[in-house]
Amino acid sequence: MPVGELHARPMRINFGPSHPATHGTVRIVLDLDGEKILNADVQVGYLHRGFEKECESGHYYQNIPYTDRLNYSSAMLNNVGYCLAVEKLFGIKTPPRCEFIRVIAGEIARITDHMLCVGAMGLELAAMTPFLYLLEGRELALDLLDALCGARITTNYIRVGGVWADLPEGFAPFCRERLDRIAGLVDDAHRMLTDNPIFRQRLEGTGYLPAEELIAYGVTGPLLRAGGVALDLRRVQPYLVYGELDFDVPVGEHSDNYDRYLVRLEEIRQSRRMVLQCLERIPDGPVNADDPRIRWPRKGKVFNRMEELIDQFKLVTEGDLAPAGEVYAAVEGANGEVGFYIVSDGSGRPYKCRCRAPSFSNMQPLARMITGRMLADIVPTFDLINMIGGECDR
Amino acid sequence: MPVGVIKVARPAPTLAQRRPWLALLVGLWVATRHFFQSAFLFARGRQNFTVHFPEQRFLQPPAMRGMPVLVRMSNGKERCVACGLCEWACPTSCITIFPAETADGVERYPEVFDIDMSRCMFCGLCEEACPEEAIVMSRQVEIACYSRRGSLWHKEDLLVPRDQLQTRLDYLHRHYDA
After folding, report:
1. pLDDT digits (tens, 9 = 90+) for B8-42
2. Cross-chain CB nearest to A262 (options B10, B60, B121)
3. DSSP code, position B56
4. Could you tell me the residue range of the domain that residue A59 belongs to?
5. How many domains is chain B built from?
6. Are the beta carbons of A156 and B7 separated by less than 8 Å?
7. Contact A62/B89, CB-based, under 8 Å?
8. Does B149 touch chain A (CB under 8 A)?
9. Residues 262-281 of A with CB under 8 A from B
10. ipTM (interface predicted TM)
11. Cβ–Cβ below 8 Å for A156 and B131
12. How many independent structural domains does chain A possess?
């Protein structure tokens, strides 16, 4: 029934900022005609903490913990992105073992991110059980990160020119065992969700936006790949050792929520493939670049030798003196292209550190996706965009 | 190695689509299997997954980064020589050190060594910067307190005997001296 006949105006309601389904504090102002969305105004910025400004006051190594707090469900990938950008600025090459470790750590982080996204989306569509399985799997993956770097979420593991520590003893069998259990849990969630008629009705055809528009909005990651565009930085501009690995990039064709869900589920499997290959092929050798401009000297030498002690003092207090210049480096994060643009004036601190956050671009088409649709379509659409407040608002 | 592109297979509307109770059965089957797996493990005294905190503790790996503490040597003194490198390295400036001099062989010691745990983010950069192995990340994470003053830890609270930190020190030595 048209609005006029009921002598009622469209109702304006707030969806968020603290709605249970807007994890990550975002506010959507909705004009509703019954349950139909006439107009949507997406407002982000509730989690702004000044990451970029804060980076200007810290040495290059001091900003690595802050990158953990961008996308906190896959912190490792942000670490990798930031360190690759700084390494590009310095023009250094990391040893192969380090690159393999970074890929292993990054792919485990990607698994945790996708599991959280799919699980939380299921939870908000009232599928509680798959959520529990996926979170259990996520905990198993976080155990791996814990063994690797001593922290589950805020990893602070990757260093400029290397990694904090080598793989712990017995990591490969531990990792294989855990990845097998995770694969089993993902399959269970898949059995419960993918074919479920209610679930399919909620996802199929909702949140549709053609690929051209997604590209125009600057969307990257699984959201764009579900639209049929095989843009994956691991494939189109391989960094680290992705060029040597055998994996597939899953793409969808309908560009709706169901394809986004399927793409994410498939990416978990592909990430597992990548980690297993890396564990097979990882070479021995040093994990840190042998570059005294960047890497702090070995502790054994710091304790016993004067030169290394002086080195340590200089590197900690002055920071790594970067050559002046500008660089941009990007990695494929869990939600899309995570890029860092660093301007250096030759001092130990970045003059400017800009973060290209995938969640921010991915949030842009949300209003287009939900306008004209039902109120209930917001939840799966928003969840599969997987906006992470820390990253979107920085 | 060329990277392939695969199209995610959207399952054709299956039998479960036309018979919703079939989907229900599949879901029930998966959930029941999980239930009996957990029940079986529980009956044998092994939890599948849940850890009953605080009666049971999570088994932490050697790499575990808890709160930073100061190492107390066997003579009861701190190992720290108040060089201030951890203060420099700390991204959140949560460490405050006032150095002082002593007639001992080490010559310097921290008169005040405070860590504001409400600002500390357990990143471990202080430990990495320390040239004396005097500040290390312990396995302690249960540091909740009732007031803001309670989250300011002084030197006396932070000192931990060296043998209690052996796991962490062994872990660090593994790749510091390699």
Report:
1. 777 766 665 667 788 788 888 888 998 888 888 88
2. B10
3. S
4. 51-392
5. 1
6. no
7. yes
8. no
9. 262-263, 266
10. 0.82
11. no
12. 2
